[in-house]
Amino acid sequence: MPRDLDKLVADLTADHEAVADGLARAMGAVDSTIAREEWRGAQPIKHGDAMTITATFDGEERQFFVKPEHAGIFDACCPGGSAYATLQRFVDKSWTVDDVAVVLSFALYGPTAKARLSYDMARTARQMGLGVTSVAYAPHPDVLKIVTRDGPANYAQIAVDVLTAVLFREAADAA
Hints:
The chain is built from eight helices and two strands. It is mainly α. The chain has one domain (about 5-45, about 50-175). Strands 1-2 form a two-stranded antiparallel ribbon. Helix 5 packs across helix 7. It is globular. The chain starts with a helix and ends in a 7-residue tail after the last helix. About 35% of the residues are buried. The model is unreliable at about 25-35 (pLDDT under 50).
C-alpha cells in the first residue's frame, strides 16, 4: 500500500514544531547541572502511546520505541541527518555501527538532557536563518558496547523496525 509522502512530511513537521515548543518551555526549568549531565543515572524509558518493538537485545527481551513527543529530537539526532535518511542507509546497505547504536540507544533511553538542549538551540538557530539541522547524540555506552561486542548486523533489523515505526507509525512487517 503506497504511503502518502506529503502527509508524512506534514505529520513530521507538526511533530517537530510540537516537540520544539514543549522543549522551549521545559528548558527554562532545566537546571544547568542537569543540562550538562548526559547519561548518569539513565534508566530505560517507559513507553506511552509509542509503537513498541519487542526484540532480544543482549540476551533479554527489551522494548524499543520513540515517544511521539520525541520524534523531532530523534529525527535531528539520527546519524544520517534525519530518520528517513538513516532508514534509507539501511535500505541501501550503507549503514554504520553508529547508525545502529544511536537508533537503539534513543529507542531504549530516549533523548539526553544535552540532546534536548541542543535540539532547542538548533531550532532557535534555524529561526534565525542559520543552517543548523542536526543534533549531536552519543549513544548510551552500554548500548554501544553491546552492539560492537555482538556485532552490529545482529541488531540492524531492530534499528530498521524502530525507524519504520517512527516514520510510518506501523510495524515494519506490516508494510
